Amino acid sequence: MIDVRNVDKSFDKQQILTNVSFHVNKGSIYGMLGSNGAGKTTMMRMLAGILRQDDGQVHIDNAGIYENTKTKQRLIFLSDHLYFLPQYTIRQMGDYYRSLFPGWDEERYEKLRTLFKLDDKQKLSRFSKGMQRQAAFWLALSTVPDVLILDEPFDGLDAVMRQKIRNLIIQDVAEREMTVLISSHNLREVEDICDHVGILHKGEILLERDLDDLKEDVHKIQAAFKEDAFDPDETDLDVLHVEKRGSVYVLIVRGTEKEVAQEIQSWHPVVYDRLPLTLEEIFIYEMGGVGYAFENILV
Ligand SMILES: Nc1ncnc2c1ncn2[C@@H]1O[C@H](COP(=O)(O)OP(=O)(O)OP(=O)(O)O)[C@@H](O)[C@H]1O
């Protein structure tokens, strides 16, 4: 569905994205993670056909997006900075969207009214930040898009509304195979909704995996050894992080569960535990591996 290959992008001779490639399957929800300034918004603006890449290809449904009006009519990009026409109400924006997007579904718009409970005759500029975001989702989902691109989508929404909107997105993915790309710094949220994740760092893709596979591939190990007979540097483990709490080692390691267990067992541990990792932990340790480590500094 979405196919990005070897994309380069610079602004004023400053290289922002370098050789970026990734693929999003139809009916999948892809989380694009990354450090601040990694280039996520730039990538999303290219996918929405707002910016053109310098090199490489940005394809949606096997065709370049930049000059492809037909595909753009089936795609909605919700930017982190929402934009509405000045002085417009939701209803007026809806009429404008109906003229732009052939998929506009008036019946759906009416159904969503009961969920969002916003006054669609009120000027959008009078709404709070969270209400404006709700309005943006109301309008976006009324166009029944095939592709939904969301930059920090839940910013400003309360917990109940986040859950409602998450459910609506999941429903559209399940029922009609909508394809979704989400960028968010809230990894808890990404973890809840995405089936695939990619990490962008300094304009390059660091890692791209199915979320379940990724979790099966990175482990948090707690282990203790007799008379301290363990040296992480002497193992065959791919260690992302190591910490010693008293006599207990806490290791974050990459590899299959079997490989990791075999290696640790060969050191005859007296305690051995494998704990689940959150996406946030995976992100932090993977970023640490490329020198973007967190430091325990208090100032
Ligand atoms: N129009 C522009 N002109 C010049 N530089 C730009 C422009 N847009 C983005 N940049 C630069 O590109 C880099 C990537 O920015 P981008 O907004 O894509 O990052 P991001 O991953 O979305 O960051 P964040 O997580 O902080 O929102 C930054 O260094 C930014 O200053």
TrEMBL record:
Q: Name one GO molecular function term.
A: ATP binding
CDD domains noted in UniProt: ABC_DR_subfamily_A (cd03230)
| Residue ranges occupied by any ABC transporter domain in the UniProt entry | 2-227
Q: What are the entry keywords?
A: ATP-binding, Nucleotide-binding, Transport
**InterPro entries recorded:** AAA+_ATPase, ABC_transporter-like_ATP-bd, ABC_Transporter_VariousFunc, P-loop_NTPase
Entry-linked Pfam families? ABC_tran
PROSITE patterns per UniProt = ABC_TRANSPORTER_2
UniProt name for this protein = ABC transporter ATP-binding protein
From what organism does this protein derive?
Answer: Halobacillus kuroshimensis
